[in-house]
Amino acid sequence: xxxxxxxLIDLVGGLIANGPGDRxxxxxxxxxxxxxxxxxxxxxADRFGAAQISIDDVYLTRAERxxxxxxxxxxxxxxxxxxxxxxxxxxxxxxxxxxxxSGDQTAIPDFDKRGDDRRPPDRWRRxxxxxxxxxxxxxxxxxxPEDAAALARPxxxxxxxxxxxxxxxxxxxxxxxxxxxxxxxxxxxVLFLRAPGFEVVLDWxxxxxxxxxxxxxADLPAAERARLAGFIQYFERITRCMxxxxxxxxxxxxxxxxxxxxxxxx
Length: 266
Description:
- This protein is an alpha/beta fold.
- The protein has 10 helices and 10 strands.
- Strands 2-7-1-8-9-10 form a 6-stranded mixed sheet, with helices on both faces. It has a two-stranded antiparallel ribbon with strand order 3-6.
- The protein is globular and about 50 Å long.
């Protein structure tokens, strides 16, 4: 994934400096898959002594998602969309870090994406002491819900074939409007890394996968790219909505295809 742009690290540093003085500032870095939000959050955490947590770290366990598969909708068995994260666990982590003393260690969960389950607590990483800030990278925090008319029409093959009546997307939208909106409202600042368009997301995600496999993006097997094209359909509706302005953010950084910042607002 490369390195975070130094101007963006400085931008996060400014948000930290402008945060409340009585506790670590809580800052979200949000954006589409592959936009560099985790890379930025980790680099800023290293620079400023902050704690970094990815919302991917607190996916519901496989067993918990299997319950949602049976009781809510089968598509909730697939991790990623709102409703598949343990926000209560994430809030407990934030609370623990906010009151930690210099000698305290806070365990940060770790999710095994290849095994599709949360790793056991004895394999979680530890953060020592009280952080200067708490940085959460989360693709969907700050997203605004859609209205019923927008939800009525399937957006892609996944929705047409596996959610023809819209039950899943209405449930996801309910999570966006309810628990996720309430959670995002607690943040001191939300930084949105805005992709130039949804069409770059597959290329960005394929580059991530190629990096994990240790091969050039051009050598990523066609079957793997096809799998990723199906995977991002779970994220497409909310991502497109956010790119079109359906996001509540304090700072928006528009990126080019190479993830370089071309504009910062405000």
